[in-house]
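A quick aside before the break. I want you to see a complete sequence-to-structure record at least once, exactly as it would be stored in a machine-readable document. Don't worry about memorizing anything.
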Amino acid sequence: MGPLQIKDILQTAPENQSVVVKGWVRTKRESKNAIFIALNDGSTINNIQAVAEPGQFSAELLLTVTTGSCLKVTGQLIASQGAGQTVEVKISDIEVYGTADPEEYPLQPKKHSLEFLREIAHLRPRTNTFSAILRIRHALAFAVHQYFNDKGFFYLHTPVITASDAEGAGEMFRVTTLDLNNLPRTEEGAINFKEDFFGREANLTVSGQLEGELGAMALSKIYTFGPTFRAENSNTTRHLAEFWMIEPEMAFFELEDNMDLAEDFVKKVITYALINCKDDLNFLQNRLTEEEKSKPQNERSLPLLEKLAFVVDNPFERLTYTEAIDILLKSKPHKEGKFQFPVGWGIDLSSEHERYLVEKHFKKPVILTNYPREIKSFYMKLDEDGKTVRAMDVLFPGIGEIIGGSQREENYEKLLGRVKEIGIDPENLWWYLETRKFGTAPHSGFGLGFERLVQFVTGMGNIRDVIPFPRYPKSAEF
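That is the input. The structure line, written in tokens, reads:
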């Protein structure tokens, strides 16, 4: 099972027993009475202190013990004299696995900017901030699978390579084996995709939803959790070109059921992180407070743990898009012309509008429903009025929309009409349409961008900092 990890050693009662600690040096300091080495192995944000006596080891060996070097330390586990830890290791032996030249190793014990750390993404998991984020990311992913498993859902693996564009947005990465210097052409001069690997145009998926619906029409409740790709040239703090999506899809669920599930799901998953990631969340909360010290009081965000409790402890406010527009039209920022984007029925709400509703007006998370059909996807079920669809978006403080979902249109004629109306060739979606011909049923689902959830839980300002190796325009370095 390998050696004991630092996380376990820190929780062991000290009885002068022999222990072996393996990890990377965070800091080394020498005083006239002792040499202190702080070691970390990534199992916890907390370091273990290892102490040697002056003269116990050669100066030559100690020169190789620097920030970033990797050690195996053998010694006795004793009660710690210093503040901040209950145990420490009294060193009897040091073996250096790997050195890290202080002249070259970029992660020295000082503050590094997040921008700089993105340039060294291969090393940034060794910082406190990024090791904390990655542990929380793991905990959230585990909680997602646990939640759906306990609720009787089946995990469905939908294709990464697809010939359909679920969002109808058209910003997709092409998958091809054609020689770009010598493309086969049809007689009309177009690229001849019949010669390509799949015999047709293929892309990386933008969503597993359409295939997810097929699974729900057999297994009743499924969820997907996989990578998705958007080729939009977007350089914001909220967009990635490669990210992970969680998409449950449920037969026999109507809009109300869909909202209940979405609310329960995010609350349970965030609660799991609150219970299991205390040390990391406390560290990130302090980091955020420190970061925002220079901001005026009214621009500072809620302390991280308060913000998470805000979501977990409040019933989400539910209202229609039309009611939300009325609230925005009557709002002070609208009347004073403070909103950057104009408000009116039919607009696609921007995140400033969403955040006003959550943070200023209701002071709790919000679920908006029944959006105008024009601004929503073709597969959403039309309301009786013919003007709106049974959509639902969950809005959170700080980020705006975190979940988007809907009841799906289960009527074959209506869906076919919508597909033609927005200019999709029904031939390309014959299989999707066919589920409405063979035993159709009311069904609903939603999508949650996993990185937005991680960003919310960690309090990080930029989505590029919550995925190990971010992909965005002009960046696929690692």
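Two observations worth writing down. The chain has a mean pLDDT of 94. Residues 7 and 92 are 21 Å apart (CA to CA). We'll return to this after the break.
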